[in-house]
Every structure is written in C-alpha cells, then in structure tokens.
Amino acid sequence: MNAIPHKDFQLLPMQPNDIEYYMINFSYGENANGENGQFNCWGLLRDVQARFFGISLPKSNLGDDIAELYNHKMKSGSWEIVDKPFHGCGVLMREGIEPHCGVWLDFDGGGVLHCERGNGIRFQNMASLRMSGYSHLKYYRFNNG
Fold it and tell me: What's the pTM?
C-alpha cells in the first residue's frame, strides 16, 4: 500500500482488515503522512479519505496551519458539520491548540480510526473514546476535499 493513491488508483471498499493493516504497519510521527511507516492524525485521515473514499484532503501541519485550513474550508462550505456519523466521515475529537481528528467507520457497531501520540493507530468505539477523554465529537462531510 502506498500512502496516497495516484489519480489512476481504483478505489476499493474499506474492509475491517484494512484497519488491522494500519494498526500493524504504521506508528505515530509528528507531521507524518505515511512516510517511513508513520502518520499523525491528519495524515491518517488524509490517507484513508483518498484511498477508500476518493476524497483528496490538503496536506497540512498541525497547529496554526490546520486551524487556518479548517476555518477556510468551513467558511467556503467545502466542509460541513453533520449531526450523525456516517461511514467515512471525518471526526474532530478535540479542538483548540492541539486538535485531534480521525475517520468514522461503520465496523463492529461503529468507531473512529485515529492516530495519537503515545498510542499509535487505534480503532475505538464510542464507549472506549469516552473513557479516553473524547466525549464531544463533531462529524464532518468533506465536499470537494
């Protein structure tokens, strides 16, 4: 698997074993987008969106860069908040100085695939997310990336 597919890449539906692939083969890396077997939360979200959902999200560093990108995309309507999660939607798990994001997947009752400093790539259901301190999730539809 390459990190981000080329435009001639054929999308395949995401399967539960794809979660396992990410968890086994990748770890956390600052501002990493799949290079050297590492992702940060944004890099993982970008990769999953491109590979399995055909959505190309811009590369961005966390912190001020991602905050600017977020504000621009929300104002332009390219991204919108939705009330309920759906397979493949983006999930904002923590706002502020150190935002954290993932992707909602409808496997095993639903959960979020994300990559966090200190824990690497995880797939957590709602109960597990709450126990980890992620209790106020926002769900996003990416219109035009």
Answer: 0.88
